[in-house]
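User: what does the whole thing look like in 3D?
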Amino acid sequence: MASSLSAVGWNIRAYLLLARMWIRVSMTYRASFVTLTVGQFFITGLDYVGIAIMFSNVDTLAGFSFSEVAFLYGGSALCLGLADLVLGNIERLGTRIRMGTFDVMLVRPVSVFVQMCADEFALRRLGRITQAAGVFAWSITALDIDWTASRVAMLPYLVATGTVIFLAIFTLGAAVQFWTAESSELANAFTYGGSTLAHFPLTIYPREGIKALTFVIPLGFVNWYPSLFILDKPDPLGLPPAIQFAGPIAAALLSVLAAIVWRRGTRRYQSTGS
Amino acid sequence: MVSVIKVEGVGRDFTVRKKVGRLRRNAFVVTAVTDLSFVVQRGEMVGYIGPNGAGKSTTIKMLTGILVPSTGELTVAGLTPSVERTELARKIGVVFGQRTTLWWDLPLRDSFELLRRIYRVPDPRFRTNMRTFSDLLDLGPLLDTPVRQLSLGQRMRGDIAAALLHDPEVVYLDEPTIGLDVVSKSNLRDFLRETNRERGTTVLLTTHDLDDIEQICSRVMVIDHGRLVYDGGLTGLHQLGGARRTLVVDLVEPAAALELPGAETVRVEGPRQWLSFPADASAAPLIADIAERHEVADLSIREPDIEAVIKQLYTNTSAWSSPPPFVE
Amino acid sequence: MGLLYAVAHLSFRRYSTYRAATLAGIFTNCVFGVIICFTYIAVWEQNPTAGGYDVTDALTYVWLGQAMLMTVAMWSGGATDELAGRIRSGDVALDLHRPVSLLGWYLASDLGRAVYHLLSRGVAPTIVGSLLFDLRYPPDVLTWLVFALSVALAVTVSFGVRMLVSASAFWLLDDTGVKQLAAVCATFFSGLTVPLVLFPGWTREVASLLPWASYLQVPADLWLGKLTGLDVLAALGFQAIWTVILLWACHGALILANRKVVVQGG
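Assistant: Here's the predicted 3D structure for the full assembly of 868 residues, as structure tokens:
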């Protein structure tokens, strides 16, 4: 136990070392770092402007007001942004394998997962995170809600579970590339697709869709179920309220799955060499 | 003597999918390495050569833990590479010829700093090593230059220093001198010899440059078609598969090309004739034969050129799969 | 002409070798299509005539958007990215002194790519979309032809914009910022994020005049039959004007670049 704990500690330290190195790299091109960070702010910002434009044509969307949708959008974008910051470039696995640079990682005394997570760590993603956090914060002030202690406590819970779920999805998407190196775009369907989906109330989907997003691909736990609690909305599926607190279970299951697939993937790489 | 690398009956197959027709793909099993067995002792410097696609990099990948062998067993520094890959990583150094492991946009110094932490090299050790490398590889003036601005030779020096920073027991060098100028090559070889002598580092290097081998390796392993066809000293290579020596005779009187059993006259220039004969045959009966027919003014024997031997090996690989492997 | 056709054909073939990537891309297009469709259903449920579209128009627009996304290379990519690479490596000096027109060469190559992306990443998601949702189709052959022409112009306009972005690499050390800005503008002002018809007030009119409007909004309006008679010609004319302006600008940029390369030796 002690040794595995120290292994975790070592891997986190190694991650920070590698990430710091990449930050130094990005600082050598300071002008472009600033442009890209600001650019990231606007890119995701335009998604939000898009939602605002929709609301210039309607007052509510599936029973949700603009500030409520902004809350969903902010939460989802914040979780995605944080996960993307932590390990966004893991999706380059296929490219690394093709270029043969993955082998270089395999001969270093650090877990390849950690090395892939930290690969070309992009601090510029703070631009996107800032934007999402801004919208999230604005929506919190704009919402007409009685902020009880349990609701406030729900906020960090939402961000934490949502981020872990996206971390697991990023990992799964990357691990698939051990089998098909060209499939990096497949992961986008689940990461960016998942985040886009979570911008809006799930009530816009048919019941089967919501069920699938709860029990099959647990994107509903990113922000939907915590938001039902915070916004005091009825659950369209009529599930017991406990489901609103089941996020950590979903996140843990998904993480275990991601870990298994990643492990299998590296084993496969070691046994096929491609 | 302590053995550092032990390879026993190691084989490695790959499944390759080939297109047949428009959509169908059939799977073929390709054997990259078969029944590979060798032992490398601590402090040996071994050249590992063979034509492209012979199985060199497959072997290196298995020795580093990147690939799992299909059959057989291997240990490096007492560890099973594919199972204990990250532990092994601390005990080995790898230089992948064309791919740098340094941080492209940052000064060389930063890469060393990072590797120091990643390999957890104790401070005093790091300082000593940096001093040594700066002296021997002349890295001092390069430390503050971003890697992307280094020349190929400078970068290779950096890569080699990076691979040796944590005092690995074994170093694998893949084509370390490729693309370097004569001076850089020679400096690099001096450095490797020095490191080997001072620290007892075991070195396994693949190369296409036979000077590398002649100048630094005490032992050569030749792999071809996935099999070890030669393992031994440099001189023994001469006898490998049809290498020939040349007997140069100066006759007193010019004569027609000599026709002798077991030798072939390859050139005639006035009284001087060149006769080629198998390297493993004795020259004595040949000389006796000639002396019987002509008056001989002078004689000399030329040993086969290793380069020529290897060149023959590379160009004529198909001829090599049939004869039984020669192992000293 | 024969040479340019060969260039386009080669480019088509080159892109068609990435089969797994294409399949993955089609899947992603479909997922996004479905997500956006349900969002639009919710919008048009609240306001059944938003932007002058009915819900069928809106859903059709979603799938046209997914189809045009790769066809016009909204987020860059394609032949123009190669140019940027060749500028950085200095190889472009060779290109500039070839006897063929650099612009023609890259345009042909990009059109070849666009045809491939239209047939794969364009057609496949649209078929999936038509199976899942009730969509609207051009009523007659003429509309199909007009749409096809409009798509060709859309690709050319987008090529012009991307070419200018890539050519900026002649003057800027690092063009990633410009490239990102271009991608943002393309995504937003093409109507991919939200149809331009939903833009409020004057912003809609301004957006409809920008070159990006010809990427998606114009072809979509033609497909949906929102434009009739002279309006059709006006829409095509709008795209054609931007085509001419942008290609002319590209031509000028390459002349300036050539001068720069000659003077500074790259």
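In plain terms: Chains B and C do not touch (no CB pair under 8 Å). The radius of gyration of chain B is 24 Å.
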